[in-house]
Amino acid sequence: MFPAASLLTILLLALSIAASPVEIRDSPITLPIARRLNVSGGTINLLEYDKARVAALKDDRHIGSIAVTNEVTGYIAAVGVGSPATTYNLIVDTGSSNTWVGADTAYVKTSTSVNTGQPVDVGYGSGSFSGTEYTDTVTLGDGLTITAQSIGDASTTEGFSGVDGILGIGPVGLTEGTLTNSPTVMIPTVTDNLYSEGTIPQKVVGIFFGPTTSQTITNGELSFGGTDAAKYTGDIGYTSITTTNPASTYWGINESITYGSTTILSSTAGIVDTGTTFLYVATDAYNKYKSETGATVDGATGLLLVSSTQYSALKNLNFNIGSNTLSLTPNAQIWPRSLNTKIGGSSKAIYLIVADIGTPSGSGFDFVNGYTFLERFYSVFDTTNSRVGFAKTSYTDATTN
Predict the structure, then answer these.
(1) What is the mean pLDDT of residues 282-294?
(2) I need a labelling partner for 44 at 20 to 30 A (CA). Which of 1, 95, 127, 144 fits?
(3) Where is the catalytic site (predicted)?
């Protein structure tokens, strides 16, 4: 029997019965996490930052790990490290697996901090960090503690303004090579350690995002060890991790995409990634979508722009994943208009969230379903069964944008 703490629910700010992830009900453990749009320096070119991340993910530019964090916008977890704990604001990232601190708030060593003597280094599409590996106590909520989690103590960082580091919940293989003196060693992730220490019954992470129209808001939930039936409707549809490289390195899946009844992307491999903002598709799919919608490229933001008349005529964008179809409604295909000026756009403009990945389909990395996609569905990252799942939520058809 697992303790009550084994079914952790973390609030976010930003098969057979035996194989099915455990559902969480009335979990007593919560941790606020915020969605944050970092515009402290003025307006931002969000697409530019996002594309840097996607390029690094797609081109596999890393030494063992492809942690490439979009430091401009994302979901932030308040995580305790040490005893007594210091709280750090960490980006929740399914596209990387190292957990590290020190970008803003310095790592505070306590009696539980153990220097492993290992240099750690990770390159990013829009930044980097290097430093020293420690093991330390990590606290994710009352009653939920990891006693010896690998923590990177960053001595140098680039591109992480306003955050302290990353909480990496990607596949463990992404950590291989990040310890420069031990390039074949893989570092257990927080999910791995929660399982190995007997705190959770399965290596499963459930994620719920709600669409947001403000810079910072508590509007989601992260669950370790199971799924939260209160956060989705209907059944969770699962699909296996793709075998196609390089997408298989990440939380990669196969899908096809149709706009209305028109196929814009035949079944192919890509990834699901909380650290990417927009929805990226292969260049040929992007051009078909642009043509079908009548959109033009906006010079200020780089995003696709439609008129009010064109917006009224938008059709559903359908994602065929396994035996299920998930649809982005017309409203789900646009950037929140209340945030237009924060990314250098016009307050009354209508921008689409679909962007060009930069290469034609067939590369083995033909789409990235970023968090503007994930905000409309409940998602499950199931290491135990090598699969990803999706379900509808109360926000799937919302008109919040």
Answers:
(1) 98
(2) 95
(3) 93, 273
Task: Give the predicted TM-score (pTM) of the model.
Answer: 0.89
- pLDDT for res 228: 86
Count CA atoms closer than 13 A to 287's CA, side-chain side. Answer: 7
Residue 181 is predicted with a pLDDT of 94
273 is a catalytic site residue: yes
Q: How far apart are CA 317 and CA 320, in angstroms?
A: 10
How many of the other CB atoms lie within 10 Å of CB of 54? Answer: 28
Write out the H or E segment, with its range, that includes residue 192: helix 190-196
Classified as helix, coil or strand, 97 is coil
Our answer to whether residue 60 is catalytic in this structure is: no
Q: Are 95 and 66 in contact (CB under 8 A)?
A: yes
Write down the pLDDT at residue 161.
Answer: 80
Name the catalytic one among 93, 153, 164, 366.
Answer: 93
The active-site residue, picked from 121, 153, 228, 273, is 273
In this prediction, residue 48 carries a pLDDT of 81
